[in-house]
Amino acid sequence: MEKFRGLGVALVTPFLESGGVDMAGLQRLVEHNIKNGVDYLVVQGTTGESATLTPEEKQSVLDFVIEVNNGRKPIVLGIGGNNTAAIAKTLQELDPTGIDGILSVSPYYNKPTQEGIYQHYKQLNAVTPLPIILYNVPGRTGSNVTAQTTLRIAKEMKNIVAVKEASGNLEQVMEIIMHKPKGFMVLSGDDALTLPHIAAGGDGVISVVGNAFPKRFSSLVHAALEGDLTTARQHHYDLLEIIPLLFAEGNPAGVKRVLSTLGICKEQLRLPLVPVSKGLAEKLDDFTRALS
């Protein structure tokens, strides 16, 4: 599963002021990322505001990204939820053409036990031939996938090939890295922790900041993977101050402000998300000009 090593970018979904999907902006975004060193593209993750897209919009966005990408980079599709049967049905009915993997978040809101999480992924593992990246983000789901559960899944389910770890707990990350089976990949879900994550033995990141600064962030990731920590540290500290600002008033509001400043897409979001405040916008603009 080397195709998921390195920098994956969780693409935003650009919107028009009218509320529709901005396909021209999406094309600019995809080209911006491909030309600046990302290793794969993630479509319809949380950053893509997938919860606000209709089924028809989800399909059109996916088809368009596949078309623009034209086989240049692997594509990972986000399919997750808290109804196991519904997610399994979606995976069974999915046309896998042009899709290299699935990113599937741990069930949210209903807060399953660790056994429930294990059984959820066991069902998903059984219904699709596509490789699945488990996504642990307790800040959004309300429940942490423990290291023990992740390792149990990794050892027993052949189609679960990686974990995107966004617990923010480096001890948990290191426990997974230390005991994982050969070939199972551990990806950071926290941009600011990417360098220590890779230095501890991780395999890369699925990123938000990469939308806006793919060249700089891919240089960080690739240098770290190659053991060049001097170069990686330089890029890490270049980006360290802007990363928390991107999330200060919710994701993807911050990164959409930066993308708007860069002329890639509009700042438009769908409710209940709203653009960042004027004060935060000014700070993001200043950092964007300094980094561009």
Features:
292 residues, alpha/beta, TIM Barrel, 13 helices, lyase
Draw up the topology in text:
Blueprint: E1 6-10, H1 23-34, E2 40-43, H2 55-69, E3 75-78, H3 84-93, E4 101-105, H4 114-127, E5 132-136, H5 138-141, H6 147-156, E6 160-165, H7 170-179, E7 185-188, H8 194-199, E8 204-207, H9 214-225, H10 229-240, H11 242-247, H12 253-261, H13 278-291
Parallel strand pairs: 1-2, 1-8, 2-3, 3-4, 4-5, 5-6, 6-7, 7-8
Function: Catalyzes the condensation of (S)-aspartate-beta-semialdehyde [(S)-ASA] and pyruvate to 4-hydroxy-tetrahydrodipicolinate (HTPA).
Pfam families: DHDPS
Enzyme class: lyase
Roughly what percent helix?
A: 40-55%
Task: Name the CATH class.
Answer: Alpha Beta
Task: Note the overall shape.
Answer: globular
Widest sheet: strand ordering: 1-2-3-4-5-6-7-8
**Whole-number count of domains:** 1
The fold-level CATH name is: TIM Barrel
Helix-strand category: alpha/beta
